[in-house]
Amino acid sequence: MLTAMLNGIFRHSKLQLMAAAAILVACATFLAGCAGADMTGSLPHRVAAWNKGSLFSQARTTLENDNQRISTLQAGHDNNAIRTACEVLGIDARHANSYLPTPDQALTNLLHAAYKDEYTASLDCYKGASSPPSHKLMTESTKSISSGIQLLSRASALDNTITHPTK
């Protein structure tokens, strides 16, 4: 949605990226105060509070949607659209990473690795969709996306285990 809005205003992807980054920094600054709310009590309570403040489930869904969008666009071979989608993935990965650390070190480590893979994928994807396109970089991007998805899944499972312990 942000990209579609910016497409109408800006015609150059560098300007798009800078504008989107500025908007995300402003939003992250505003929401950062929410992430620190109620960080006392048991680990399940603190992780649940972090989830709410960081919008963890929305961040995961956003990254999954970004990954799917890139996959769909690759089938159409529209390199400009692919590069834009790759930029958005990179912005979203950095934004999600800005909410780390979590109250649990293992969860932080998994999420950091997942977000790093997603960001690396965005860079390889952007370069791979440039002229002339690079099949090697697009393959590397796909591998990083796959790794990021697996790590996000593991992080979600750990998050669920922490926030819903068996009694």
Protein described:
The chain is built from seven helices and no strands. It has helices spanning 2-9, 13-35, 43-54, 56-76, 79-97, 105-128, 135-163. It has one domain (2-163). Helix 4 runs antiparallel to helix 7 (135-163), helix 5 packs antiparallel against helix 6 and helix 6 packs antiparallel against helix 7 (135-163). The mean pLDDT is 85. It is mainly alpha-helical and 167 residues long. Helix content is 81%, strand content 0%.
Report, as a whole number of angstroms, the end-to-end distance.
42 Å
Q: Characterize the biggest β-sheet.
A: none
Count of domains:
1
> Count of helical segments?
7
Low-confidence stretches: none
Shape: elongated
Helix percentage: over 70%
Order of SSEs: HHHHHHH
Number of strands: 0
Estimated radius of gyration = 17 Å
Mean residue pLDDT: 85
Question: Beta-strand percentage?
Answer: under 5%
Secondary-structure class: mainly alpha
